[in-house]
Design goal:
Blueprint: H1 7-18, E1 26-28, E2 35-40, E3 43-53, H2 65-82, E4 86-97, H3 103-118, E5 122-131, E6 136-144, E7 161-165, H4 175-178, H5 183-192, E8 197-200, H6 205-216, E9 219-223, H7 231-235, H8 242-248, E10 255-259, H9 261-268, E11 277-284, E12 289-292, E13 298-300
Parallel strand pairs: 4-5, 9-12
Antiparallel strand pairs: 1-2, 2-3, 3-6, 4-6, 7-10, 7-11, 8-10, 9-11, 12-13
Helix pairs in contact: 2-3, 2-5
Length: 316
């Protein structure tokens, strides 16, 4: 169940009100990994933004400004990948701590620029502030739709295979700084298959699957033994199982997508992506998600994962 005092409830509240001001230029509004704007009949622009807060998304130390800068751009590149788009340009807003010195924003930029060069993204502007608080980094990334257009969250169909790239559960071991945005994989999938629904796993595999189910008005069955668990998750000793880490930790930034069974089999039988892919379940009629364990038993899979929340207030 969605937290009524959490970010998803707030997003839905804003979504309902913002929809009344949408116009014909808005192809996709609030509710997906990026918005899509139709600048002309032949051009569709993707727009996404992420804000990283010191003390929430990272701590310095142990994180370095270079790592934070790289992550700030990488999470936005992952959103464009989720729409099977091509990134083009970024603008960056930063609030630098006054006692951090000039080297902090310079190293922050170094981390961004290295990744921008790799994916041919131009950093074209932004805003810089200095204050007495912690580091805040906001990146807005512009991209362009490719192939048959942006891949949305809302088109999963009963009978679809649920598939993923990579493995899950390694973010707490530091992989949320070093992950590779799956842009090339997403573009290859868009060329080679008819993607029905796709997103990148930022909140957690279970939570993000529920986003697809909610938007597509369908349910799902996941096979616990088929979920690819990272080696880092298997080494964590905190009382939670590797599967629990894989389902709920978030910030893996792998692709979660649905395709027809025929195309799913073709993907498993080829090395189209150059990245491991897994078939972890099926889309079904109905709602919710069931997790089938190795012994054949089933449990309901809730929305495990990360959600920002507000402090409870007394409304009486």
């Amino acid at each position: 169940m969605t937290n009524s005092a959490g970010e998803f409830a707030l997003i839905e509240w804003i979504r309902q009100r913002a929809a009344t001001h949408a116009n014909q230029a808005v192809g996709i509004g609030i509710g997906d990994d990026a918005a899509a704007l139709r600048l002309s009949p032949s051009a569709e622009m993707l727009v996404t933004v992420d804000v990283l807060l010191e003390g929430v998304h990272f701590k310095m130390p142990p994180a370095t400004p270079v790592e934070v800068g790289r992550k700030a751009l990488a999470v936005n590149l992952s959103d464009i990948a989720a729409m099977a788009g091509q990134p083009v340009a970024a603008v960056v807003g930063i609030a630098c701590p006054r006692d951090g010195g000039i080297d902090l924003p310079r190293e922050l930029h170094e981390g961004m620029q290295t990744l921008a060069d790799e994916f041919k993204v131009a950093i074209v502007g932004g805003d810089t502030n200095i204050w007495d608080g912690p580091l805040v980094v906001s990146v807005t990334l512009f991209g362009e739709a490719t192939g048959s257009g942006p891949v949305r969250r809302d088109s999963a169909r009963p009978g679809d295979w649920i598939m993923t790239t990579g493995s899950f559960g390694g973010s707490l071991a530091g992989q949320h700084f070093t992950f590779q945005p799956r842009l090339l994989e997403a573009l290859a999938l868009h060329r080679e298959t008819s993607l029905h629904a796709m997103l990148d796993v930022s909140d957690g595999l279970a939570a993000d699957l529920h986003h697809i189910l909610d938007e597509s008005h369908v349910g799902a069955i996941l096979q616990a033994d088929e979920i690819p668990i990272s080696e880092a998750a298997r080494l964590i000793n905190d009382g939670r199982t590797p599967l629990e880490h894989a389902l709920g930790d978030g910030e893996d930034f792998e692709l979660l997508f649905t395709v027809s069974p025929e195309e799913g089999r073709q993907l498993l039988g080829t090395d189209t992506l150059g990245t491991p892919i897994s078939h972890i379940g099926e889309i079904i009629d109905g709602s919710g998600c069931r997790l089938v364990h190795g012994d054949g038993s089933e449990t309901n899979l809730p929305r495990l994962g990360w959600e920002h929340g507000f402090a409870e207030t007394d409304s009486g």
